[in-house]
Amino acid sequence: MSEATLQLHTKLYPHAAVKAAAEAYADVCQVTVGKAGSYWQIALREVPPDLQAVVAHEFANYALAEAVERGR
Amino acid sequence: VATLALDRGLYPLDVIYGAAYVLIDRAYVLLDKAQDGRTLVRVRTKEPTDAAGLEALAGEMANELLSQALRRKIAQQNRPLLEAIVTQAIAGASGALLPGAVDEDDSLDFLDDPLGIAVPWEEKFSKEAKKAAAAVETTSGTAGPGDSGGFRPKSGQGEP
Fold it and tell me: ipTM of the assembly?
């Protein structure tokens, strides 16, 4: 188990989109969302080894898809 | 990773969203803000690829951005027409009629009788008309005992 971190800009990724992604990934790993300046600080802990390389990217894609769908 | 720096005036956020959404199944797309206000789009292929593959992905993203920008412009140009069509459709479905939608014919009034079926009151109820009707009735047959004055078939009716 390992950890990955991610920064998403608050003006590009609405809070609802990040929250939805965090809820979706709660079954995969432990997700913590914080805010630092203009960025959401996302920490993904206890990531399964086979997902370690992609989990942050997949989380970002998921949040982006949520942002697009909520913006329609 | 290929990075595109996009001017907000040329590529609004919904255009960037639309283009990113198209590629999201094949690539990892991360949006960010540059210090100068431009929007940064970082794309990375999901499958391992070389520099040429990455460049092709970036080019596809740039093309998709242009496509989305054009679609947005056309949608904005057609918005008044779409709104008019939808308004008319909703008004028609709800039974309301728009002014001028129906060609109202005000040339007819209640005295007009285009089918020729109206009977003037004077003709129908005048004393002369009643007398004439009574004369016709008396000549058609002679009243006898038990004649109630109701419907009476013409004499000879049914005979050859």
Answer: 0.91
